Give the backbone structure.
Amino acid sequence: MPPAAPQGIAAFGSPAQRYPMLQSPVRLGSLRLPHRIMMGSMHLNRELADPRALAAFYVERVRGGAGLIITGAAAVNQEGAGGAGYTLIRETAHQDRWRKVVTAVHDAGGLIGLQLFHAGRYASRSAFGLSPVAPSAVYSGYSRDTPDAMTDAQIAATIADFQAAAEVAVALGFDAVEVMGSEGYLLNQFASPVTNLRDDAWGGDPARRREFPVAVARAVRHALGSTPMLMRLSGADLVPGSSTPEEADALAIACVRAGADAIDVGIGWHESRVPTVQSLVPHGAWVPVAARVKTALVEAAAAVPVIAANRIVSLDQAERILGSGVVDLVSLARPFLADPRILSKSFAGHPTLVNTCIGCNEACIDRSLGREPVSCLVNPTAGRELEFSVLPRTSARVAVVGAGPAGMEAARALADAGALVSLFEAGQRIGGQFLMAGMVPGKSDFLETVRYFEHELARLGVRVKLGVSIANAAKLAGFDHVVVSTGVHPRGIAVPGAGLPLVLDYAHAFRNPDAVGDAVAIIGAGGIGVDLAHLLCAVRAGSVFGCPAPITNGRESFLIANGLADGTLGPSARRVTLMRRAGAIGAGMGATTRWAVVSAIRRAGVRTVTDVTYQAIDSGGVWVERDGIREHIEADTVVVAAGQESNDALAGGLAAAGIAHTVIGGALAASGTNAVVAFDQGLRAAAAIAAALPAAG
Ligand code: SF4
């Protein structure tokens, strides 16, 4: 059911007017899709857990309007598994799991396609003790392993494995199959001169490097009969010396001639040092690559639907892309984690109620590359639908004090469960540290989370009281329960001179970036310090970080012009020095984001200094010592970003007054409480309170 029209929120024009292209049906081979959004493949690290939970995850998205869903990758054999958490689709026990999922999706009215893959040199030796295999023995910095070069017999067996896996997919009732041939996996490795050094039937020139992926396409096509086959192919490897655009296009054409019903265009390898899916990549940045593939297919009289993916986060963007005619479908993956009802809400005219993916990767891609089950930072229910989609009903009167991530989520979930919620916030807007994060270049989507909660809390009837600071616990005596989510404050630093006027804390610097001078020394280089450095130096008009994203300018040169492809971002006019006592710059940031942001600030000229001891601050900067050598870091402003302390005074007052309460987020633990933890604690606290205070009757 679409959400009720919220009071006070203007609905846009009729949904049909708003998304005419997006809501027009499209064919993928024998399959007729009701609209042009596909839910893209995501490895969830949940595929081998309770199949009922996996089914619930997909069914929730079907209920939200998802058309064709592509599963996470299923390995065609053991040596091709990306890790121990991957499905081996030819194992009977794993097939039984997927059969349950397929049945559940079909019962809910959805369509589901299986993604078949072989990781090649990205496979994990530790998963099954097998050597990774690849076209050639080329070391991978991603898997930190060197694969064995495949023999002719191994190549033939692997093609047969793809064919057998496709036969399994048909037998299980999948509506389509997608063959993974991008992101640097096995098919992509064969196509690339970087990883295919052979000089035989499978390599030596572009035509022979295409032979393996085309042979796989033919074999899968043969196995599928009338079931549609999508090929996920790399439109741009973003690896020096790898396939040219012309070679990538030629492979797409060859795969269509081998029977592909659609080309889903992937971007970049895991080893690429060009950001592809991080928040600092502009929305729609990669559409021109998919558009190029479509043009090549049309010119070769091999036109099939082409699907664009990566960093498209809203249906408004998707409609603009589709309306320009450069591609035929848009694949959204993470946006379905952030909000399973992105389609139904938008189609019903309420895009402001969509919980938008912010491109942080912290609870999804970062986890999928390891062993942790995937969820979503802004939607901790994702992947845990059986536990948290429907909380016990409650009619409790609950006060939530503090409207940062933990408090917003607690208030939302409690109100959704029926509680009468009052949310008190000392500031003038909800959002807490997301308001600061949203100022950072490339992180403006964090403000979309604030927008979502503002609208969703209004829809749910939460009484939001801004500018109200509650220090006296007695004022909360009338509530059945109090959630203390009062967050943190910056920790000071015990260094001579810390009280001088040039010293600011990070919160002050974020609030007043114009008050910061031209030469800045930042003490502390965790996530906040790095973000602050980024904010202070990346203000160059027209830079990739500052400009609104072009969606469909049709020019790949956009990437180079904006410094994404070749690192040409100019230095900042501000001199920023980022210092840390121990550990790496940006330690604690997500694995897929840290390198991209740290390289961005270095390109902007930020000097990073680690392993220092702070000796003193004077009116001209900071004295530090490193390797026994003293150095004066010249600065007209010193910003302290050296950790935080909990705002937990209210909890003590509530305890003294005997008022039932739960402390969450930074108020509970300043150290180690990132946004993932905060949102999760908000949800868990709401579930526990709803269970403890059930509705009467
Ligand atoms: Fe998007 Fe972050 Fe959620 Fe991943 S964890 S789906 S990147 S908001």
Q: What stands out?
A: Residues 219 and 490 are 60 Å apart (CA to CA). Confidence is low (pLDDT under 50) at residues 1-13, 539-569.
